[in-house]
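Example S7 (structure tokens).
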């Protein structure tokens, strides 16, 4: 199982994609913290997982409320001992028309879909890093790559990190691979001499300097000559 001995915090786990994701992760061995505004549906998801032999607990909360997220993280750590993953799934949409959409609905959607994503990630990420060392391990691997990389690659890695890219080493490798492929192909096609365009092909029934073998054409030529 891919996620055996791993624990996952899933927001919006009470229904839809959140529930389906929770069930799938549990089937792969993960322990689940099912977080949802609706305590009943969150518990239903946890019960489904336990009935199938998995490990899951439910926690009622709102992704817009930092305190409720902190309580859920504490519950997960007490129950599982660590947190390995976050599925920042909770989100919603309002089907009001443009003219009917109220300011309150607009604020609600942005609070859940934007602010909620930020708050959840900000609260859960330190617990994941402390439990599994994900951030520390990434930094260590990146530093090791820099020390062993060529000067050009080192500069690329450093530049990416200064720009705030968390995927600096990955992006740098993509650039280096692209450069190698480019070199292998012999450079850009812009530097290659342009071939002259082919002359247009003209289809003729017969040539003037040859005797025509097309029926009717020879008779026309003879009549023209007699005239």
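Recovered sequence:
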């Amino acid at each position: 199982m891919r996620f055996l001995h791993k624990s996952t915090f899933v927001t919006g786990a009470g229904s839809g994609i959140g529930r389906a994701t929770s069930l799938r992760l549990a089937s792969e061995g993960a322990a689940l913290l099912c977080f949802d505004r609706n305590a009943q549906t969150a518990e239903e998801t946890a019960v489904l997982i336990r009935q199938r032999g998995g490990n899951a607990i439910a926690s009622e909360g709102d992704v817009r409320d930092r305190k409720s997220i902190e309580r859920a993280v504490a519950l997960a750590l007490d129950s599982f001992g660590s947190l390995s993953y976050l599925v920042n799934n909770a989100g919603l949409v309002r089907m009001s028309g443009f003219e009917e959409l109220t300011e309150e609905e607009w604020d609600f959607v942005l609070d859940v879909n934007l602010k909620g994503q930020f708050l959840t990630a900000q609260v859960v990420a330190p617990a994941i890093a402390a439990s599994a060392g994900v951030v520390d391990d990434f930094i260590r691997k990146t530093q090791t790559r820099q020390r062993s990389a060529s000067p050009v690659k080192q500069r690329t890695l450093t530049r990416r990190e200064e720009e705030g890219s968390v995927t600096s080493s990955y992006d740098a490798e993509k650039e280096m691979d692209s450069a190698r492929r480019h070199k292998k192909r012999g450079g850009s096609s812009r530097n290659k001499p342009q071939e002259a365009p082919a002359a247009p092909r003209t289809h003729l029934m017969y040539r003037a300097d040859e005797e025509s073998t097309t029926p009717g054409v020879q008779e026309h030529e003879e009549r023209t000559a007699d005239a």
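Notes on this example. The first helix runs from residue 16 to 27.
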